[in-house]
Amino acid sequence: MNLISYMIQLKVAVALNYELFQGEENDAKIKESASQTRDVLKQHFNDLKGTLGKLLDERLVTLLQEVDTIEQETIKPLDDCQKLIEHGVNTAADLVQEGEIAILGGVGEQNEKLWSFTKKASHIQLDSLPEVPLLVDVPCLSAQLDDSILNIVKDHIFKHGTVASRPPVQIEELIEKPGGIIVRWCKVDDDFTAQDYRLQFRKCTSSHFEDAYVGSETEFIVLHIDPNVDYQFRVCARGDGRQEWSPWSVPQIGHSTLVPHGAVFVNGKEMTNQLPAVTSGSTVTFDIEAVTLGSSNNNEGGNIKLREC
C-alpha cells in the first residue's frame, strides 16, 4: 500500500509540476505578446503622427503659396496705377513751378519761358490718368476653413485599430513529406470571415520569415525543406472586404526526416497544390525526374515526359 500510495503521490506531483510549468509558460506568453502589442501600437501611432504632420505642413505651404500668388497678381495693377498717377502729379508740379518762374522773369526772357511753358503744357494729358478702382472692387483675401474635418478625422481615429486577444486562424497540423511539409490551418473565430490566408515560414535559426503562400486554401505544402532542420510556420488571414491582415497565429515548429524524391514539373512549374492554369484542349507536359535511392547497379537517373492533350 505504501508503494502504491507513493506512486500515486508521485504522479500527482508530476502532473502538478507540469500544470505549473504550463501556467508559467502561458503567463510568459501573455506578457510577451502584450509587450509586443504595446510596442507595435506606439510605433504605428507615432508613424501616423509624423505622416499627418507632414501632410498638414504640405497643405499649409500650398495655401500660403496661393495667398502669395493672389496678392502679387492683384497688387501689381494697383502699383502700376499709382506709379502713373505719381508721375503725372510730379510732371504737373514741375510745370506749375516753371510757369511761375516764367511769369516773374523779364519781358524777353518771360516770352521765351512762357512759350516753353505753353509747349510743354500742350503735351501733358492730366485727364488721361488711370482710374483708381473702388474699395469694394479691390480683392480682400480670406481663409475658408471647415471645422467639420476635425469631426471626420476624430471619428476615423477613434475607430482606427483594434486589439485582438487571439488570432482568428491557427495552424492545425504539420505533416512531413519528402523534402517538404504540409501545413494545415483553420479558423478559430466563428465571427471572422476570411477572404485570403497568408502562410510564412523560416528556419528556427533565421530571424526573417518568408511568404510561402497567399490564397483562399487552408493547406499548402512548403517545398525545399532541408531534412532534419527545424522550421517555424505561422499564418494570418484577411477579412472579407478588408485590406489589412489579422494578427499572426502562434508559430508552430516542424521538420521533415524524409529525404526529398525527384521533382515533378507541370508546364515547367514544380508541382505543389498551386498548379499552373490548364485550359480544356491545351497540351500539358509532365517532366518527372527519376532519382535512384540507395545502392543500385544503375545509378543513372532519367527524365520521363508524358504528353497529354
TrEMBL record:
Transmembrane segments: none
GO cellular component, as recorded: cytoplasm
Every Fibronectin type-III domain range: 167-260
Subcellular location: Cytoplasm
Keyword Cytoplasm: yes
Keywords from the UniProt entry: Coiled coil, Cytoplasm
Entries under Gene3D superfamilies matching the protein: Immunoglobulins
Reported function: May play a role in the negative regulation of cell cycle progression.
Family: Belongs to the cytokine receptor-like factor 3 family.
Entry protein name: Cytokine receptor-like factor 3
Record organism: Balaenoptera physalus
